[in-house]
Amino acid sequence: MITQKAGVNMSEETRVSKAQQKAVNKYVKSNYDRINVTFPKGQKEIIMLAATAAGESVNSYIKKAVDQRMERDNA
Q1: Cα–Cα distance between 62 and 39 in angstroms, integer?
Q2: CA-based angle 12:27:61, to the nearest 5?
């Protein structure tokens, strides 16, 4: 069975139960810090395209950029 949610087709196999999502959220909350970053309009699309071209998620792309900058500044 295929269901429609927010314009996306999701099979039953790929849906996450509320209990699973709650467990993931709890894990993330206890193991990661969140930082909200704001970019000028249009920059999000450019970053997304660059991350995709590098074969990375946006999160890992930005994290690598920050890590490289900190390493360079502390060298």
Answers
A1: 12
A2: 85
Residues 67 and 57 sit within 8 Å (Cβ to Cβ): no
pLDDT, one tens digit per residue, over 25-70 is 999 999 999 999 999 999 999 999 999 999 999 999 999 999 999 9
| Rg over CA atoms, the chain | 17
In SS3 terms, 12-75 reads as CCCCCCHHHHHHHHHHHHHHCCCCCCCCCCCHHHHHHHHHHHCCCCHHHHHHHHHHHHHHHHCC
Answer whether 37's CB lies under 8 Å from 62's CB: yes
- Phi first, then psi, for residue 2 (nearest 5°) are -110, 135
Whole-prediction pTM value? 0.68
